[in-house]
Write a structure and sequence with these properties.
single chain, 757 residues, Barwin-like endoglucanases, Rossmann fold, 6-stranded mixed sheet, disordered N terminus, binds iron/sulfur cluster
Amino acid sequence: MAIPKSGSKSPVIVEPPDTAAGPEAVKSVYRSLRDNSGLLSGAAALLKMNQAGGFDCPGCAWPEDTEHRKRLEFCENGARAFADEATRKRVTADFFAEHSISELAKKSGKWLNDQGRLTQPMVRKAGADHYVPITWFSAFELIARTLNQLDSPDQAAFYTSGRTSNEAAFLWQLFVRVYGTNNMPDCSNLCHESSGTALSAVIGSGKGTVRLSDFDKADAIFVLGQNPGSNHPRMLAALERARQNGARIVSVNPLNEPGTQNFRNPQTLDGWTGKGTALADLHVPVRVNGDVAFLKGLCKAMLEAEAERPGEVLDREFIRAHTNGFEDFAADIAGTSWESIEQGSGVGQETIRAAAAIAVAAENTICCWAMGLTQHINAVANIQEVINFLMLRGNLGRPGAGACPVRGHSNVQGDRTMGIWEKPDPEWLERLGKEFAFQPPTAHGCDTVDTLRAMADGRIKVLVAMGGNFAGATPDSAFVERALEQCSLTVQISTKLNRSHVVTGATAIILPVLGRTEIDRQPDGEQFVTVENSMGVVTASQGRRPPPGPYLKSEVRVVAELAEATVGTRSAIKWRALADDYHRIRDHIAKVVPGFSSFNDRLYDDGQIELPHAVRDKREFHTASGRAEFTVHDISPPAVPEGQYLMTTIRSHDQFNTTVYTDNDRYRGVSGSREVVFMNMADMAAAGLQAGDYVSLKSANGSVLSGFAVVPYRIPPGCVACYYPEANPLVPFAAVAAGSNTPAYKSVPVEISALKS
Ligand code: SF4
């Protein structure tokens, strides 16, 4: 299946801005509402987003600031995620009659998404090239029959997107385990799995240790491998307030993003008329995958400062009382030369010492990170080096300090908490089995990468996906698409079209569901769902807009009816009754999931619940040793063949994960095309390339992307950047993070060749 060309025009390239948000953000929201939901109804709905009694933003997982909640509690990209879901466009049976699947497969992801909301169940019968309508009943029967005809439940996999609510996720994992497998790949496998793996091993919990209020108490905030201006924009308000409280900010990123340089808060007069708030005191332009070297340099500078002023730099009491492995760690750092640190990080000693000075001057330090640390072969090492750095001054388990992996999908953390994991704890399975009187499967299942491998070699034949874009979000697109096409059945439970609806198994089914923002009426009344943000706070979300059509079902209803059709006779679980009133699901959650006791009552009393966290709440480390672990890691960036570059994939300001809103990226000064490669100007000169020249990019998996335009950019030498998901074909399938199996989208050696005009 050919990789579609977006057919985009030549890019217009201008100097990127040095500030984020401001009036431009408001204009962008205006355009988005005007072009999608309609201005008035859209604006009315936005007043309910992230508000008590309203719906949770379908964007990222940055927490609501319930202490300083504003009347407009959303950012530009939250409004656009809303407007994208609230579009007035509809994809009907006529659309599918008009467009064959092979024709749709040539369309870009943006074009598919722009067609609008799915309105009724559709089926692609084996051998057919068009989707045709199917009733819900027949769809469930067909899926159930196919699943039950498999030789083993392990021949099926059940994918979960991070937008799935807690109630739908809990019922989903219950259905899949009653069906008999733990094949539960989910989108966190592609993003923060490395954080969970790294943190669990060294501090005993896979979740961040800070609250939003800690940002007001921090003296220093390090933002590593994250672009909050585009991917978690309301974080800028927290950084702004921290700055106003005197905190110092260090951004560690190959690209100096506007969102960490300066913030013009559109909710303030200064944000409209003034310069806004300068954020980062220091930008560290680390080379792609140079983070381990930089962080070891940071620790080396701090240990050297401690040697000069004993007892003034390190929190010896914390290290003595709460950690293991300090001596080996310190010996390794002492043995690591500044030369290898500078070479590995691409950053000079002076800059590293300046960052260390900020850390040493700070009583309380927070480290935030995202994909720039988690999507590398050595991602687990990246994150454990962050923890090494934090532990030197005891920055774990006290106010104003700690680890903050920032999740990019509204309920990705909640889904894992609800049991969406291919490696469930035995205790979890025991509680689940006891609560529902069945014997859950104990053999570990497949995560996303293992599922693809099993599809490719025929071990997995059926994929049922709850939301998301399995085909578009995964690496090595040619490999992935061949694997998907090998399946006998693929099912997409979705709101809108994407690549996964046009790259399918022999038989394919589309089941259209309600969005987060829409009224979810069930036999026992209107329902609300819950989601968990990056800081472990669970809030209620109540849809407030009319559904986009009469034939849609809620995610919970789809799971209940599919389960009844597939495993209804195998257990006493009353699936439909659970979907009639979600309180019943939450009552079960209260008995199975730690931290959710009296779930419904606490939601009514407080409107939210904060999940317990041993490190944050009690400075307890539930590791094998019962102590926090210092770890030792080599400086080992991927080998880049002579003459090649290290490519990192990035998101533009005008996209949310694989959903592309426009071909523009005003924060990087590019518009009109996404088929671009950001390149260091000296590297361009050395290669005889000019701005706008067309090149081809080739990677070790043999994939070639041709016709990408060169964009001069302030990126470290030897490094280039291309957009996700357009560059996914170049990411080799086998290039995954050790320990977490997360694809290494952020560091891929590529060969770049000029195209002769
Ligand atoms: S910061 Fe994230 S969760 Fe908050 S409004 Fe923006 S996109 Fe939505």
